[in-house]
Amino acid sequence: MNDRTALVTGANKGIGKHIASQLAAAGFTVYVGSRDARRGQQAVGEIGGDARLLVLDVTDAGSVTAAAAQVDRLDVLVNNAGISVSLAPPTGTDVEEFRRTYETNVFAVVAVTNAFLPALRRSAHPRIVNISSGTGSLTWSTTPNPQFPSGSAGAAAYRSSKAALNALTVFYAQELAEEGFKVNALAPGVRATDLNPRASSVGGDPAEAARGAVRLALLPDDGPNGAFFSWDETPVPW
Ligand code: NDP
């Protein structure tokens, strides 16, 4: 099938750009979401295939409405755009930092998903992939595990925003299951990107994380729904 369409938000760089590249290589028409037209157009050229710029600031209601009006049918929505404002624990995090983080990582996902729902409903096999984080796992935050030392309360705004995104993943999955949707969350692993500069020494290849997202974008009709997976396909506890 060469007429499948996908939208990746925040696809002008980082993990999102790799997801867009891989979906384009898989034959999708890919809408490259970027809040900056110039940087988005540059990414479109680098992504290749049938990639198209879609100017989209996910926190701007007018931008979301205008972008949705340009897409008739959508098979895959990847809610990838995200920010990390502060590494502080909750007592050291101003409520405004929480608000700013939630605007992008939580509220915007609701706005974008709801705006593109009519287009997704025109797909025979609609898929939504929410790019979350293992740091949003409450289980991993409270029990010893190989990937995260327990007891750290850092990056409270970011991590709680991803926990909220995980909850929304379950609720969207439940609500839309009967319509054939698959809505799942991905923990991409630690990647060296602008969002996570501390990962420059330890972070893995963002392309590897993107493959995990593409797998969820291509799930068969009997695949999982309302689940949380690591980039390497292993389930992540909520
Ligand atoms: P980057 O900072 O490289 O990319 C983030 C992307 O989101 C950019 O394209 C950025 O656009 C875009 N974005 C941010 N705010 C908006 C907005 N309001 N409207 C539209 N686009 C926006 O980070 P990553 O690639 O690392 O992050 C991608 C996702 O992966 C995020 O959801 C992040 O939380 C998640 N993640 C990343 C991890 C890592 O180790 N890197 C680990 C776990 C999860 P712009 O260039 O204009 O700022």
From TrEMBL:
Keyword Cytoplasm: no
Keyword NADP attached: yes
Originating organism: Saccharopolyspora phatthalungensis
Keywords for the protein's UniProt record, in alphabetical order: NADP, Oxidoreductase
Molecular function per GO: oxidoreductase activity, acting on the CH-OH group of donors, NAD or NADP as acceptor
Record's protein name: NAD(P)-dependent dehydrogenase (Short-subunit alcohol dehydrogenase family)
Family to which this protein belongs: Belongs to the short-chain dehydrogenases/reductases (SDR) family.
Gene3D superfamilies per the UniProt record, alphabetical: NAD(P)-binding Rossmann-like Domain (3.40.50.720)
